[in-house]
Amino acid sequence: MREIVFDTETTGLDPFQGDRVVEIGCVELVNHVPTGNVYHQYINPERSLSEEVVKVHGLTEEFLSDKPTFKEIADEFLSFIGSDSKLIAHNAPFDIKFLNAELSWIGKEPLSGDRVIDTVVLARKMFPGSRVNLNELCKKFHIDNSARTFHGALLDSELLAEVYLELIGGRQPDLVLEKESDIFLSSGGLIDLKTIKREFKEPRSFLASKEEVEQHTEFVKKIKNNLWGINEGD
């Protein structure tokens, strides 16, 4: 099972008021385990950024001015997330609204809401009445977020991946090894167990031979005061 944990940074709150995506970060999970495969891209929004927004994510007009536009990176982004992987985001409606607006402006199909898992919803079920922003969830699950001085799409995706796994009960929460994938993570990366050759050995026979039975019987007869009523000389 493949899932993509993702986050976006933007120029504001509403794409239909002229705001744009300026950063996308994605982390790949396979069977609830991070594979180390990520996607990260800064994007030129082709518009100005307010001081308030820059204070949130630290991305300035000057920094973004030579970055590719969303149209230029769209195919690469869509290829990474695939057509059927689940998409996990914190406050997902916000991110999906922006991505679908960007996709619509370049004539691309929108991302289906059926693919999306909102970790805010999961967190509110686990912690009703509590604050469930990313920083608070990191504290609850003892996840180190000390590097989060600004909102950053890739860093936030990496933190959210850890939070998401905690929200669903930990890595591989149901302890099911799926037959269709048979994949696990080693120090060298993903390995398909179906490609590993296993040596076949004939089943061993554990029946005692006639000679072994006779030797055992003679040995038992030599044990005095045994519990089974056989004594030497019987």
Query: Tell me, what is the CATH class?
Result: Alpha Beta
* Uncertain residue ranges: 174-198
CATH architecture classification: 2-Layer Sandwich
Largest sheet: 5 strands, mixed
Biggest sheet: strand arrangement: 3-2-1-4-5
Number of domains: 1
What is the percentage of strand-forming residues? 15-25%
Overall mean pLDDT stands at 84
> Would you identify the CATH H-level superfamily?
Ribonuclease H-like superfamily/Ribonuclease H
N-to-C series of helices and strands? EEEHHHEHEHHHEEH
Number of helices: 8
Which geometry do the CA atoms define?
Answer: elongated
CATH topology: Nucleotidyltransferase, domain 5
Q: How would you explain this protein's 3D organization?
A:
With 234 residues, the chain is an alpha/beta fold. It has one domain (2-193): Nucleotidyltransferase, domain 5 (2-Layer Sandwich). The protein is built from 8 helices and 7 strands, in the order E-E-E-H-H-H-E-H-E-H-H-H-E-E-H. It has helices spanning 51-57, 61-64, 70-81, 92-105, 119-126, 134-140, 153-167, 210-221; strands spanning 2-10, 21-30, 33-42, 86-89, 116-118, 183-186, 189-192. Strands 3-2-1-4-5 form a 5-stranded mixed beta sheet, sandwiched between helices. A hairpin with a 2-residue loop joins strand 6 (183-186) and strand 7. The longest helix is centred in the C-terminal third of the chain and has 15 residues, at 153-167. The radius of gyration is 29 Å and the shape is elongated. The model is unreliable at 174-198 (pLDDT under 50).
